[in-house]
């Protein structure tokens, strides 16, 4: 009996220590995030210079001109609202946007969001990192979308961008027109998710109207953020088609970060400008690994359907 009581005591002690260690680890993580969000106090040196000049007296007699330099150094800590966002009741979407505008690192924002450090206090929850990344992508993109919609201008030409990374090839086409977005993923046979497929598998995700999606897809949200950052910098709208080809060289999933960064990299590269839709289609066809997929993409794309079959009012004037 004494032995059982002793073992129970040891077990309780170890369990309590484990819980304490877990809480301490989480607290340390929260403190670390807060420190990352908080800018260091910056010092501003003020130099107050006074120049005393003795004017000529009333009688016109010249007096001495004496420069007087008074140097005063004042160290003032400068803080902004970034730390305040952790402690105040601010909607998570607003907090994310303010941190983004404050040039806080994207993944620092994600960690703060994931740990439940942002948002209205009574609604704060721990969020899986995967969900937090998509939520932060969406929150920032929604604000950027408001910017480009306010400008009400569109790109002047059809623009084609390409980039490749770790077995993924991206072809991005911007068409003059109101903002809408389509993304098609072409999974070739023998990739990690298509081991037994006999032919390429196409997966479509669409945003036919702003913030109206056929489904919530993390990869599409990552690419969408880079697209909207590009358009917001240019203060333009565009109808966007993203073609992502996944080859067998992509043998292990690495997360959505590479979609966001590769899309941004593509948009920073030289582009093909054209007023000719056929020329853009030909370039898309030559860029595809399987040329036979071009007709399928054109048939299923709603953007191409609008370009081919729907006419705008200005067509008649």
Notes on the protein architecture:
The model is unreliable at 18-23 and 40-79 (pLDDT under 50). The protein has a domain at 152-316. The protein is built from ten helices and nine strands. It has a seven-stranded mixed beta sheet with strand order 7-6-5-8-4-3-9, with helices on both faces. The protein has a two-stranded antiparallel sheet with strand order 1-2. Helices cover 44% and strands 17% of the residues. The chain has 317 residues and is of the alpha+beta class. The longest helix is centred in the N-terminal third of the chain and has 36 residues, at 2-37. The N and C termini lie far apart (97 Å). It is globular and about 70 Å long.
Provide key terms for this protein.
317 residues; alpha+beta; seven-stranded mixed beta sheet; two-stranded antiparallel ribbon; 10 helices; 17% strand; globular
Brief characterization of the structure:
The chain is α+β, with helices and mostly antiparallel strands and 317 residues long. The chain has a domain at 152-316. The chain has helices spanning 2-37, 82-87, 92-101, 106-114, 129-151, 218-234, 257-267, 277-287, 293-300, 302-309; strands at 49-52, 66-69, 158-165, 168-175, 180-187, 201-209, 212-213, 239-246, 272-274.
């Amino acid at each position: 009996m004494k032995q059982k009581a002793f073992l129970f005591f040891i077990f309780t002690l170890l369990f309590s220590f484990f819980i304490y260690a877990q809480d301490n680890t989480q607290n340390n993580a929260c403190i670390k995030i807060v420190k990352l969000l908080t800018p260091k106090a910056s010092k501003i040196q003020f130099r107050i210079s006074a120049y005393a000049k003795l004017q000529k007296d009333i009688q016109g007699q010249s007096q001495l001109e004496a420069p007087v330099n008074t140097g005063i150094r004042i160290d003032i800590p400068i803080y902004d609202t970034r730390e305040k966002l952790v402690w105040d009741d601010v909607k998570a979407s607003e907090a994310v946007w303010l941190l983004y505008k404050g040039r806080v690192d994207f993944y620092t924002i994600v960690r703060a969001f994931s740990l439940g450090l942002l948002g209205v206090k009574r609604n704060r929850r721990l969020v899986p990192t995967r969900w937090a990344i998509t939520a932060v992508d969406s929150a920032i993109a929604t604000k950027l979308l408001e910017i480009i919609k306010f400008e009400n201008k569109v790109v002047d030409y059809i623009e084609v961008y390409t980039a490749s990374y770790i077995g993924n090839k991206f072809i991005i086409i911007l068409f003059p027109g109101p903002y809408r977005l389509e993304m098609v993923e072409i999974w070739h046979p023998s990739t990690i998710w298509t081991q037994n497929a006999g032919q390429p598998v196409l997966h479509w995700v669409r945003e036919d109207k702003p913030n109206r999606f056929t489904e919530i897809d993390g990869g599409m949200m990552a690419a969408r953020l880079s697209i909207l950052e590009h358009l917001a910098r240019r203060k333009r709208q565009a109808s966007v088609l993203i073609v992502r080809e996944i080859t067998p060289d992509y043998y292990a999933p690495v997360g959505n970060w590479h979609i966001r960064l590769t899309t941004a990299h593509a948009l920073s590269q030289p582009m093909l400008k054209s007023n000719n839709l056929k020329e853009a289609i030909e370039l898309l066809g030559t860029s595809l690994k399987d040329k036979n997929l071009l007709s399928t993409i054109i048939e299923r794309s709603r953007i191409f359907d609008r370009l081919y079959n729907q006419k705008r009012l200005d067509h008649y004037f």
